[in-house]
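Sample entry (202 residues):
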Amino acid sequence: KGWLAPVSSDDLFELYTLILVMQAIEGELCFGEPEAYGLIQQGRAAVATYRRVDGVKAEVFFDQVPSGIFKDCGSEYLQLIEAHDGIAGSERRPDITVRFTAGANERRVLVEVKETEDPAYIRDSIYKVMGYLHDFAGIWADCLHQLPKAVVVFPTNIKPKGAQSDIVLVSSDRTGDLASVLGAALGDLGDEGAEEGDQAAA
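Predicted structure, serialized as tokens:
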């Protein structure tokens, strides 16, 4: 996308949500200021990289194909397209991807952003993200029990309730919900790394 050109309200809401994700990582998840920033342009790496005092690393990617981030991830959708003549397609791009890393362990979260309050479009957006979970299932091959795996962000009127599931819906005006969901996905990743280090030292 050309961010120097005039942008739509959808684009602006994506950028706003990117900022909310970064603020949640910096604040509620206790990572502090980024140790590195990246440009929002094609072919980029993470737009922000963080490292917490316990050694856990967080990377935030914007509008990137998952196979460019996770080398063990393929797209079942793209594989199906490439297995046929007469049709073309490309790998889907989730709006925001977050990767938490501690040693050899990772947690991976897709964040899809939808600037809509239309009930039908909201339902379609949820179904689209359900498709992401199937298409990019390889992302979570080593963290199958991670919950949630994806977050869908809408402007208002959405509030999660009950137990966590693979997908959680949140509103941008309830920033605490977004931070809580990212924290749930992160889980005890840092503690796991510390335990492995203690065992190695022993």
